[in-house]
Amino acid sequence: MSSNPSKKLNFIALVSIVIGSQIGSGAFVLPALLAPSKTIGLLGWVVAVIGAISLALVFADLSSHLPKNGGPHVYVSEAFGKAAGFFTAWVYWIISWSSSSVLLITAMSYLAIITGKLSTCSVLSFEIAALFLITYINMLSIKFSGIVETILTGIKIAPLLILPVIFFMYFDAVHFEENAKDIANGADISSVIAQATLLIFWGFIGVECGTTPAESVNNPKKTLPRAIIIGTSCVALVYIMNTIAVTGVVGYDALLGAKAPYALVIDRIFSHKSDIAMAIMAIIVCIGTLNAWTLTGGQIAVGACGDGLFPKMLGKTNASGAPTVALTISALGMIPFLVFEQMDCWRNGLERLIDLLVSVFIYVYLISCVAYMKLLGRWKHTRAEKIKSQILAQVAAIFCIFVLSHDTLASLIVLGIFIVIGIPVLYRQRKVTASMSQ
Could you tell me the CATH number of the domain that includes residue 242? Predict the structure, then answer.
C-alpha cells in the first residue's frame, strides 16, 4: 500500500467505516425484535453498550500498539504465534463476506416495496449487480471506497438522527410506565435481559473494522483509537435514540411481529406513502454497510498475506493498491448464499446459518481479548496501567462468553468447520514458506 498520505484514509473516513460497518439492517428491526422484552429489555441496552464500548477500548489499545493491516489476526499472531493468527484471519475473512450476504437479501426485500413483487431471476440479477458494483468501487482504491463510505454513512445516519427528534414530538411515556410494572411483578428479569442483550449486540458487530486498514490510515496510532471509540459511541447513541423513540410512539404491542417498525410509526404520523421512503432509506443503509464490510474483507486478506499467513495470490493488488483477487473471491463466494435464499427448501436453513455466522464473530473478539491480556505485560509499565487494562480486558472477555453462552454448541460446530477447511491452506502455505527459505 502506498505511503503517500493523500492516498490514505483520514479520520472522518475511518469513523465512517466504524459506524457504517455496525449500523446495518438491524437498525430497522431492533425495535420490533425487542418488543417481547418490553421495558425490562431496555436494561439489555446497558449490558450491550458496556460490552460494545469495552471491546472498542480493547481494539483501540491493540491498534495503537500494532497499527497493521488485517485487524484481529495481527494481535493474535503477536500473542500466540502464526498458526493461531492464521486461523483467526481465515475465520474472520470468511465470515466478513459470507455473513454480508444478508445485507443484499434485506436490501432486495425493501426494493420489492418500491417495485412490487419481483421474480426470482430479477431479484438475483439486482443482488449480483449491486454486489459487483460495490466490489468494483472497492477495486478503484481504498481512498475512493472510504469517500463513498463517508457519503453513504452521512446519508444513512442523517434520517436516523432526524427521525427520532420528530418521533419524540409524538412520544407517550405511558407506553413505558405500563410495562415497567413487569419488573415489580416478578418477571424473570435475568433471562429477559440476557435475550435482549443478544439481540442488541448484533447491531454492534463490526466494532473492530476500523483496525483492518491500519496501514492505510494517516497517523494510525492516534487516529485508530479515536475513530473506534467515537464511532462506536455514535452507534450506541443512534440505536438507543431510535429504539426508545419508535417504542414511545406506538408502544410494544403494536411492534410485536412488525416487519417494518419505522414505516409503522411514520404511517401513524404522516401519509400512507411513507413505506417507499423507508424502503429507500433501508436500501441505502444496507448498501453502505456492505461497502464497509467489502473494504474490511479486502484488508483482512491483504494483512494476512503481508504476514505470510495467506497465499500471495490473495494479496495481489492493482495499481491503486486494491486487493482485486481477494475482493473477487469474496464477491463470488457470496453468490451461493444469494441463490440459496431464493430456494424455499433452503430459506429457513440459510437464515439460521447466517445467525451462526454472525455469532462466530464473537469468537474472534474473545480470542482478541485473550491476546490483549497476554500482551499487556509488554506494553504497560506501571502497576496502575496493568490493573486498569486487565479489568478492561476481563470485562470484554466475560461479555463475549455471556453472548456465546446462548448458542454455544451450534456456533462451535460452525467455527470447527471453518477451522477444518483452513487446515489444508495452512499446510500448503507452510510448505511454500519452507521452500522459499531453503
Answer: 1.20.1740.10
